[in-house]
Amino acid sequence: MEHWDRLRxxxxxxxxxxxxxxxxxxxxxxxxxxxxxxERVCDLGAGMGLLGALLLTREPSLxxxxxxxxxxxxxxxxxxxERSGWQERLLCxxxxxxxxxxxxxxxxxxxxVSNPPYFPxxxxxxxxxxxxxxxxxxxxCTLEDVCRAAGWLLRWGGRFCVVFPTERLAELMETAxxxxxxxxxxxxxxxxxxxxxxxxxxxxxxxxxxxxxxxPVLLLYDPDGRETAEHRRAYFREEEQAL
Length: 243
Description:
The chain is built from 8 helices and 11 strands. The protein has helices at residues 24-30, 50-58, 71-84, 130-136, 143-153, 169-178, 229-234, 237-242, and strands at 2-8, 11-16, 40-44, 63-68, 90-94, 109-114, 154-165, 181-190, 199-206, 213-214, 218-219. Strands 3, 4, 5, 6, 7, 8, 9, 10 and 11 form a 9-stranded mixed beta sheet that branches.
């Protein structure tokens, strides 16, 4: 079934529960990059275009190009762009990020973002639904494929922002560095103060010098079980409370 969810004003995004469901990690990644006016952004494995919609809601001057394997997901992203007034800002091209000929030209982006599959093949909980298994497990593309594509697409000094399970952080950093992406900024995410980090948000810089800055842990819930202010901001819910 198809749905429309509002983000801010008349802007929002389409999603279909037969394809990809909106996930908290995508919303958290949408709030992580430091955005600059007029930047060119590429979303690898863009799905229905949610991540691009989140970034454009924060900074309307961006141009976001999504690369997505499924044409039906691209169609949803294009409908999101039309309804939200982002026809020239939110683009989606069907293609395989593993194929150099499907990628945009080298060095053409200031920022690359990705919410890649989390689990190696044959590990983790694999969904019987094809689209969700592709989104969660490395059955089509791997972490190495994503980092290779990001290294190709970024200009010198450009940034790569990604969300990934904390248990694979060492692998993420090692893989990123093999493709010239130096880890520069890291933020752990955990459910509450009593928990342990389950996700990590990482920013790498193409051609950057060594030196990693760790930021305060992002807590999703306070001791009373209520969403923290940062969690609400990721979903643009703080604006609803202000009305």
